[in-house]
Amino acid sequence: MVRTIKTGLALAALAAAFSLQLSVYAQEPMKQDSMKQDKMQDDKMMHEGKAKTLVTGKFHGKVHKTEGRATIYQEADGKLVLRLTNFKTSNGPDVHVILVATTDAMDDANFLKDNTEKLELGKLKGNEGDQNYEIPAGTDLTKFRTVSIYCERFNANFGAAPLEKF
Q1: How many Cβ atoms are within 10 Å of 97's Cβ, its own excluded?
Q2: 73 with 101: CB under 8 angstroms?
Q3: Nearest in space to 57 (alpha carbons), one of 166, 157, 162
Q4: Is the dihedral of CA 30, 35, 38, 44 positive or negative?
Q5: Alpha-carbon span 19 to 24, nearest angstrom
Q6: 84 HSE (CA, 13 A, CB side)
Q7: What residues does each domain of the chain span?
């Protein structure tokens, strides 16, 4: 009798785990489709001449391997957008995209000092793939010259892209 109860409980646990896996798996294609649709809209906007390229730079990783390109566009209405393309970095907790008032973020000691001005653009949307971040109106791009992928929890610069005129 005890064996039958244990077997029944084990089967119930397996069934619950299996149904949970299926629901997670079912949500993943929807998320990917949504990301693909956003990417197609972004690409269309950027390539139809509606946005002007201002500055761009390639990522390099110091703490974690980070690659891809960061480009700042100015849309027809004057709004500034940071676009990460062919982007890839390590997964991490509490990772953010920030603009840094420095020519590069190679030196973690200087980059992490409190007196280095930083501008938060938001949490990293994903550790792989193209993504956009709005830049606040009035941001001085002559001052903020580097994009950093920054892990707040560990106070670490995952990677940086020094920006140069296009």
Answers
A1: 21
A2: no
A3: 162
A4: negative
A5: 9
A6: 32
A7: 1-48, 51-165
Task: Please write the tens of the pLDDT for every residue from 48-63.
Answer: 568 999 999 999 986 7
Helix, coil or strand: residue 106: coil
Torsion of CA 121, 116, 149, 53, to 10 degrees: 60
Residue 13 carries which side chain, given as an amino acid letter?
A
Rounded CA separation 74/83 (Å):
11
Q: Which CATH class is domain 51-165?
A: mainly beta
- H/E segment holding residue 26: helix 2-47
Please state, in angstroms and rounded to a whole number, the distance separating the CA atoms of residues 131 and 36: 10
- What are 111's two structure tokens? 């980059």
Question: pLDDT by residue (tens digit) across 96-149?
Answer: 999 999 888 765 555 666 678 899 999 999 999 999 999 999 999 999 999 999
* CA–CA separation, 120 and 99 (whole Å): 7
**Distance, CA of 24 to CA of 17 (rounded, Å):** 11
Position 117: which residue type? E
| Predicted TM-score (pTM) above 0.85 | no
